[in-house]
UniProtKB/TrEMBL annotation:
It holds the Pfam family F-box. The lineage of its organism: Eukaryota, Viridiplantae, Streptophyta, Embryophyta, Tracheophyta. It comes from Nicotiana tabacum. Residues 24-61 form the F-box domain. SMART domains: FBOX (SM00256). This is F-box protein At5g07610-like. NCBIfam families: F_box_assoc_1. InterPro entries: F-box-assoc_dom_typ1, F-box-assoc_interact_dom, F-box-like_dom_sf, F-box_dom, SCF_F-box_component.
């Protein structure tokens, strides 16, 4: 019996050794592991490092996660979007993640390379399947340049300037579909004319020498191009009265109507617009005094908005009276929506929001609330409610090739 037990242990050791030395078999196993685990495993030996850091493996890993619906955000970065310098807070959302990677790129000194350019400000503008689109504002003529950044592997690349002349009034958006090889696409939207009546869209793909002018169109006056959301193969922008999207494949711009509002009601304000797990959500409110609102979802087939959840915060306000703020205009409720999070089960779906001093997960089905993080006094006070920006963190090995790597 003892010999049989020893033989089994030896067989296991031999099998492990065979797998560890077989590159093809090892690759198939590693493809199914999370990105951060792979980053750690790349330090095991030269063979593992060569496999995990290879471009082919990294692209295959992204596609594998995409096709298995495993590209779920594991955390959220959030900050006060009215401040010049971002003081970013982070919140892990997975039991397997204890903390999110820091974002040193947001420190202007991290981008200082000699005296060629003096950086004044760096801000996150969008999150897309593991990549962040950041905007760097320089002191020289208020120029805005785009930066693509992967916080998981700390790779980043500044985008080339889209215009020969300095131009500050531009917006950058990111298209990254891991199931479509090989890299991301970047969009640059430039306002034209003294009244910004027209815009032009340029596209940049890694490996290209420059941006390519794609189209021009006249958008609705209230369109927000600094808050694009990638969903269902397109970048979506939204205004109070209408929305438009840019199809990543056809490169066409399509205008869509907003959800109809009940007769007699005033124009609603957008409180949240974002994507989670393949679902595009919209929250509109009548005013800052509203404690009742609906969570809308856009159908992929009909492209129609419908009510997914109905929210009434009266019970939450009762439990957390610090949400009540008395102003010269009347009573307001201090909260900001970080995300609508869809669970694997419907009853696990929550509304993640900040209130003074806390981050709350409000269950959209059970109507219960849980404090998921305490915010220290100075942080809680610094966050200006209704002006908190939030961006998903998704573990990914997605490559962000430097310009020199593609030449």
């Amino acid at each position: 019996m003892a010999e049989s037990h020893i033989d089994k242990r030896l067989a296991v050791i031999v099998a492990v050794d065979v797998i560890a030395r077989n590159a093809d078999l090892l690759s198939e196993i590693l493809l199914r592991l999370p990105a951060l685990s792979l980053i750690r495993f790349s330090l095991v030996c030269k063979l593992w490092c060569s496999i995990i850091t290879s471009l082919q493996f990294r692209l295959s890993h992204c596609r594998t996660l995409a096709f298995s619906n495993a590209l779920t955000p594991s955390g959220i970065y959030f900050y006060d979007c009215l401040t010049n310098l971002q003081k970013v807070e982070s919140l892990p959302l997975s039991d397997n993640v204890t903390s999110l990677p820091p974002l040193p790129l947001l420190d202007p000194m991290a981008l200082k390379k000699g005296d060629a350019i003096e950086v004044m400000q760096v801000k996150v503008m969008q999150s897309c399947n593991g990549l962040l689109m950041c905007v760097m504002k320089t002191k020289a003529r208020n120029i805005k340049l785009g930066i693509v950044y992967n916080p998981a592997n700390k790779e980043w690349c500044p985008l080339p300037s889209p215009y020969d002349k300095y131009y500050g009034n531009v917006y950058y958006n990111l298209i990254f579909d891991p199931s479509e090889p090989p890299y991301y696409k970047a969009l640059c939207i430039k306002r034209l004319g003294s009244y910004w009546s027209d815009v032009e869209v340029s596209v940049y793909v890694p490996g290209s020498e420059s941006w390519r002018l794609c189209c021009r169109f006249s958008p609705p006056y209230d369109m927000r191009f600094d808050s694009g959301v990638f969903w269902n193969g397109a970048i979506h922008w939204i205004g109070e009265n209408s929305s438009i999207y840019f199809d990543a494949n056809s490169e066409e711009v399509v205008r869509k109507d907003m959800p109809p509002r009940p007769q007699g009601q005033c124009r609603e304000k957008i409180r949240y617009f974002g994507e989670w797990g393949g679902h595009l959500h919209l929250i509109q409110v009548q005013s800052l005094y509203a404690k009742k609102f609906n969570v809308l979802e856009l159908d992929k087939n009909t492209w129609k908005w419908s009510v997914k959840y109905r929210v009434h915060l009266a019970r939450l306000i009762s439990a957390f009276p610090e949400m009540v703020q008395q102003t010269s205009s009347g009573t307001q409720y201090a909260f900001s929506i970080l995300s609508v999070i869809r669970g694997e089960k419907e009853e696990d779906s929550v509304l993640l929001l900040t209130i003074p001093g806390k981050v709350i997960a409000y269950n959209l089905v059970l109507k219960t609330a849980e404090v998921v993080r305490e915010l220290p006094g100075e942080i809680g006070d610094a966050l200006r409610f209704n002006h908190v920006c939030a961006y998903q963190y998704t573990e990914s090995l997605a490559p962000v090739p430097a310009l020199k790597d593609l030449s």
